Amino acid sequence: MGRALDILPLSLLNITADIREQVELLHKQAKRVDLFVDPRELQRREELLQVMATNNEKNAKNKALVDFREVKEILSSIGLRSPLDYDEEISKLEAEAQKQAGTGGLIVVSNINNLISLVLYSKSMIFSEEHNEKTDEAFKKRSASFRMNNDHSSSSQSAILNIPDEFRCPISLDLMRDPVIVASGHTYDRNSIAQWINTGHNTCPKSGMKLIHMALIPNYALKSLVHQWCRENNIQLIESTSSSSSDLGRSNSMRKSCEKAVDHISATKTAMDAVKMTAEFLVGKLATGSPEIQRQAAYELRLLAKTGMDNRRIIAEAGAIPFLVTLLSSHDPRIQENAVTALLNLSIFDNNKILIMAAGAIDNIVDVLQSGKTMEARENAAAAIFSLSMIDDCKVTIGAHPRAMPALVALLREGTSAGKRDAATALFNLVVYSANKGSAVVAGAVPLLIELLMDDKAGITDDALAVLALLLGCPDGLEEIRKSRILVPLLIDLLRFGSPKGKENSITLLLGLCKDGGEEVARRLLLNPRSIPSLQSLVADGSLKARRKADALLRLLNRCCSQSHSTVG
């Protein structure tokens, strides 16, 4: 209740003052109240976790066998007393595993499946008289072959034919020697599911669900139970080694990473449903509300989209993006600012970048960037362009917009320190695409970027150098940069006092300016008494990239000096 009230947009609800007061009071009380759990429930939980831990394969060398009398008492205390109770509990756990497969994280699914395995095996051991008698012909052939290759007693042979269904791989119907969990929450033998995936399938064989990832998570609990069952029935369990590692090359590395994976999804499914309900409610207010209601709804969406990829996905699925794009044209400064900031936050989720572009947002975002009602709106529009341009196709579309580059250059001139940085990083992203470099030069980016190198308050020296280094690769950009009379002395100083990245971009600019007809820049460098010592210092102490370019520039200057002496001679 507390979580639901945290995200309830109370100010947008058409309720009386008395009801509002009661809700606010309830919210305060919900925050103060501590969750009470019956100590007996906590004890049962600890006992159950202890039983599960006993079966953890990591402790296989030292573990004791499970005491099923104790397990029966624990499960009976939580209401599992008949085979029907066990079946119902298993069905509920399987349903929960499928629900959590998409949102709960790998560890959650693994834990649920470990619990399923324990309940399944406990049922088979506690109600042993109800062993499943169904045995298909294919499985009989496998077990017969197994008996021929392994000299077991008659009792163990009959046990082979009575393997509990929960220990059989759904694909091969054979005993699972290395059970693993796939994204759908179902368990298979590693070799069988690896072969299935290797043949090009991307669905779960049992459920038909599309697998959202191909990681194979070891089912330690089930593996431990299989081993215990084999020991009790005097069955030798031969685990495959080389075949399992060669069947699915990438599965081993994924398995190692999944073992160490941390479940970062903190919200429960109930909380996600609450976010979905809230997002749909707010989108409705965006669509039909008064300007005041739209302002508040856009602000609430802006905050909701600020944290969590799940929130960003859910808001987009609720249909918020087209309405937010429309609100960018609002004459209300706060509506416009909230809308562009909400779109910026939503664009952090990659799928939303495509949706925002498909909604035709670029025209409106550029309008806000160029003549937004507030400076914050303009700066956030630049940040949105930076975020959207992380995708190559978006670089092309945004760069082709006739007003995008001039608007970014204008913000570079007029914005706050944060705004200048947003504009510079957006420019950098766009001019990575070669066709956009000419547009940036025509928009007047070069002289302004050089000017910003001297602006300590702006604090974007490294960003400006990075953009200039890219514009150097464009003929128009090279020509414009060579026109500057103040750039070379600035770059020499930056070779001495700049950041490591700044030094790299400075030497890149100097080398590019001196090559291919840059004799005049080379002469200016030779006439500057600080240039050669700065270059020699960079060769000795710079990064690998900076050292290589500084060495190349020194050789170039040496040739230029030799040619000058020859001409004089």
From TrEMBL:
Gene3D superfamilies tied to this protein: Leucine-rich Repeat Variant, Zinc/RING finger domain, C3HC4 (zinc finger)
Domain U-box: 162-236
ARM repeats: 319-361
Catalytic activity: S-ubiquitinyl-[E2 ubiquitin-conjugating enzyme]-L-cysteine + [acceptor protein]-L-lysine = [E2 ubiquitin-conjugating enzyme]-L-cysteine + N(6)-ubiquitinyl-[acceptor protein]-L-lysine
Domain of life: Eukaryota
Keyword Transmembrane belongs to the record: no
Enzyme Commission number(s): 2.3.2.27
InterPro entries, A to Z: ARM-like (IPR011989), ARM-type_fold (IPR016024), ARM_PUB (IPR058678), Armadillo (IPR000225), RING-Ubox_PUB (IPR045210), Ubox_domain (IPR003613), Znf_RING/FYVE/PHD (IPR013083)
Pathway(s) the chain acts in: Protein modification; protein ubiquitination
Top-level EC class: transferase
Keywords from the named record: Repeat, Transferase, Ubl conjugation pathway
Statement: the UniProt record of this protein carries the keyword Cell inner membrane: no
Protein name: RING-type E3 ubiquitin transferase
